[in-house]
């Protein structure tokens, strides 16, 4: 891959180990084995937040290496549950929802019985059922 441009090499990289080896980031295989997808997603997130890259390929390579090293280090110092990279880790957190009072419609009172069945047949909450 030494004869490829940075962009060409990036297209060839597939695994977290490929990225780490290509950019020369030293890593513990045990950490990568457990967190490979998390590392790559965090790396992607860091690059997305970084904004515009420098035009020079050497400077781009330095940015990529720096963010990849940081993404890997996040999972050396922490774990996937603490870092919560993927949406699935946020699904069980408390959620807040607002329901405006105007959207809550009260059912009209039934003419016979109080259950809302409309008096079809013998209603269990009708006066006749309550008297017996």
How would you briefly describe this protein structure?
This protein has 6 helices and no strands.
Structural features, described:
By secondary structure, the chain is mainly α. The protein folds into two domains: 6-83, no CATH class; 107-132, no CATH class. It has six helices and no strands. Helix 3 crosses helix 4. The chain is elongated, with a radius of gyration of 30 Å. The termini are far apart. The model has no long low-confidence stretch (mean pLDDT 76).
Helix segment count? 6
Number of domains: 2
Categorize the overall geometry.
elongated
* Uncertain stretches: none
Structural class, by secondary structure, is mainly alpha
What's the gyration radius in Å? 30 Å
Largest sheet: none
Order of helices and strands: HHHHHH
Average pLDDT works out at 76
Q: Percent helix among the residues?
A: 40-55%
Strand proportion, as a percent range, falls in under 5%
What is the straight-line distance between the termini?
88 Å
- DSSP strand count: 0
Secondary structure topology:
Layout: H1 6-12, H2 16-22, H3 29-50, H4 57-77, H5 80-83, H6 127-131
Task: List the defining traits of the structure above.
single chain; 132 residues; mainly alpha; 2 domains
């Amino acid at each position: 891959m030494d004869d490829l441009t940075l962009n060409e090499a990036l297209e060839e990289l597939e695994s977290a180990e490929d990225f780490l080896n290509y950019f020369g980031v030293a890593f513990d295989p045990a950490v990568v084995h457990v967190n490979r997808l998390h590392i790559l997603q965090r790396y992607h997130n860091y690059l997305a937040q970084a904004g515009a890259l420098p035009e020079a390929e050497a400077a781009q390579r330095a940015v990529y290496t720096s963010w990849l090293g940081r993404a890997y280090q996040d999972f050396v110092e922490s774990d996937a549950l603490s870092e919560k990279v993927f949406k699935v880790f946020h699904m069980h957190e408390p959620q807040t929802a607002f329901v405006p009072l105007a959207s809550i419609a009260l059912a009209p009172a039934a003419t016979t019985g109080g259950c809302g069945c409309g008096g079809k047949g013998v209603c269990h909450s009708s006066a006749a059922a309550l008297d017996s």
